[in-house]
Amino acid sequence: MSGTKTARVVVVGGGQAGFSVASTLRGAGYEGPVTVFADERHLPYERPPLSKKAHTDSLRVELVPESFYKERDIELRLGEDVVAIDTAAYAVVTGTGTRVSYDHLVLATGARNRPLPVPGTELTGVHALRSLDDALAIGRALTTARDVVVVGGGFIGLELAQVARAHGARVTVVELADRLLSRAVSPQLQERLRERHERGGVRILTGTAVQSIEGTDHVRQVVTDRGALPADLVVYGIGAAPRDELARDAGLAVEDGVIVDEQLRSITDPRISAVGDCARHPHPHADGLVRLESVQNATDQGALVGRRIAGSPSPYESLPWFWSDQGDIKLQIAGLRANTDDVRLALGDSPERLAAYAFRDDRLVAVETLNWPAEHLAARRVLERSQPVCAADLAGSTLGALVRARRAAEVRA
Ligand SMILES: Cc1cc2nc3c(=O)[nH]c(=O)nc-3n(C[C@H](O)[C@H](O)[C@H](O)COP(=O)(O)OP(=O)(O)OC[C@H]3O[C@@H](n4cnc5c(N)ncnc54)[C@H](O)[C@@H]3O)c2cc1C
């Protein structure tokens, strides 16, 4: 390998995580060559606004302007995909057959939408949402759509349902599971979210399976096991799968994501790292390995690998946090709620504010809030510092109040 300060870094994927690797390297004074392969033709951009606003012909979502890359000597190869990794020769192969050697390779390939396994998804008016191009196409369709069917009651589906309502369309969300966001938030919160969406005019059909999408050229209806729904626009979001095929084909350990160690290096090949949606990693807040799909995770993992390559290694321990804006509902999550055994609800000072505290073995491990950013920030502070909080501590209180009381007690002591 070349000297650590001059080794060539190749990043595959120009999304949130790939950008974070490259910008952190330069921010840390790294002087070696840095190349980012990005198969999309757009400058690296953020995805959250794509499902939260409707877009027609213009949308400013790029993370930084083009000059940022030029000024920092980051070689950004837009519209170029990497199709293979030659681990023996330390090189990647692009779609045009070009070989580019690396000393460090970082996989930041993200995730792709799971296909909807029913006939009719090829009709015009049927969309999935992941890329900027998808969002622009949906935005244009929304200007005339009257009947919108959203397949999938997850974050992206619910955000998009509210966008469609704001456009004045009739909106139905069809969800196979018995609840909305069934794996993502506590059951207590699922109910509240459902109420709020329904109050906002969104029709919600849970426990309902889409069987086909029908029309001639353009979509006309969605057929479910509970009847047909008229539709001139269908958007589906039924989850995502990691883009880990490059790693698998190169012989790296892969299981629903590239398996990495606590420094985010492939457990098979330490010259290769994986970050963001495509990485499955150990985490002090998880039992075993986790794969997370969030801006926080992509940004923090990219930064960690950038700092490591620049000479400052550390294990990945960032507290997971997430947000989803669904119309006027702001959902925020701190921590990981898997394997929790108790959930307590707290109401804020207005009926729209709510917090769900999730405990594992009587220790607070995750907090979900609706329209209550201050309580979310208090949760992040407590969970980041691993300060123990049990259910009794929160009886009749909020986390914000508990933090203030503990701080006052420290000052008095
Ligand atoms: C519509 C939408 C809304 C979201 N909203 C939120 C939100 O509100 N809050 C939140 O925390 N998270 C949200 N997320 C999730 C968040 O955007 C992702 O977790 C984050 O973008 C992951 O970053 P990443 O770099 O791992 O992947 P991505 O940002 O997906 O970037 C990966 C890039 O790599 C490219 N690529 C893949 N393979 C190759 C290859 N072989 N060669 C070259 N390029 C390649 C892909 O085309 C893609 O551009 C949202 C996601 C979507 C789709």
- Cα-atom Rg, whole angstroms? 23 Å
* Proportion of beta-strand residues: 25-35%
First and last CA, distance:
54 Å
Strand ordering within the main sheet: 3-2-1-7-19
| Poorly predicted runs of 5 or more residues | none
The average pLDDT value, as a whole number, equals: 95
Quaternary: single chain
The helix count comes to 9
Question: How would you explain this protein's 3D organization?
Answer:
It is a single chain. This protein has 413 residues and is an alpha/beta fold. The protein folds into three domains: 9-112 and 240-309, 3-Layer(bba) Sandwich (FAD/NAD(P)-binding domain); 115-236, FAD/NAD(P)-binding domain, CATH 3.50.50.60; 328-412, Enolase-like, domain 1 (2-Layer Sandwich). The protein is built from nine helices and 26 strands. It has helices at 16-27, 66-71, 132-142, 155-166, 187-199, 245-249, 295-309, 373-384, 399-412; strands at residues 9-12, 34-38, 74-78, 82-86, 91-94, 99-101, 104-107, 111-113, 126-128, 147-151, 170-174, 202-205, 210-216, 218-224, 227-230, 233-236, 240-242, 258-259, 272-274, 279-282, 289-290, 321-326, 329-335, 342-347, 354-360, 363-370. Strand 5 (91-94) and strand 6 (99-101) form a beta hairpin. It is globular and about 60 Å long. The mean pLDDT is 95. Flavin-adenine dinucleotide binds next to helix 1, strand 2, helix 7 and strand 22.
